[in-house]
Amino acid sequence: MFETAIVLLYGLVAVAAMAVTLLEGWANHDGVTLHRLAGLVACLLWPLTLVVFILHGCIARLLMRLSRSTA
Q1: For the CA atoms of the chain, what is the radius of gyration?
Q2: How far apart are CA 47 and CA 45, in angstroms?
Q3: Using CA atoms, how far apart are residues 3 and 66, in angstroms rounded to an integer?
Q4: What letter would DSSP give residue 46?
Q5: How far is CA 56 from CA 9, 48, 52, in A?
Q6: Residue 28: partners with Cβ closer than 8 Å, 6 or more residues away
Q7: What pLDDT is attached to residue 56?
Q8: 5 φ, ψ to 5°?
Q9: Of all helices (H) and strands (E), which one includes residue 33?
Q10: Which residues, in sequence order, are CB contacts of 55 under 8 Å at separation 6+?
């Protein structure tokens, strides 16, 4: 359940960022340029920081529990 919510949130944020990037190009009549493609790739990758922070918190909590149980 939690993983599904994270993937859904990730997808929604990435799609929203990609839509804004595409609309910006459409409004400027630029078409598809190298910079626009790089922006679309960045839209897919930047939400990974959210995933990294969530995983870091989960792992830190797990390690804290394990260290308390062995002590």
Answers
A1: 18
A2: 6
A3: 22
A4: T
A5: 18, 12, 6
A6: none
A7: 92
A8: -65, -40
A9: none
A10: none
Rounded to 10 degrees, the C-alpha dihedral 47/53/56/61 comes to: -130
Distance CA 26, CA 40 (A): 14
Tens of pLDDT, residues 15-55: 898 898 888 888 888 778 888 888 888 888 877 777 788 89
pTM for this one?
0.56
Q: How high is the pLDDT of residue 71?
A: 62
Q: Which run of H or of E encompasses 41?
A: helix 34-45
What span, in angstroms and rounded, lies between the C-alpha atoms of 58 and 44? 23
8 CB neighbour count, 10 Å cutoff:
10
Q: Is 17 left (phi over 0), alpha (psi -120 to 50) or beta?
A: alpha
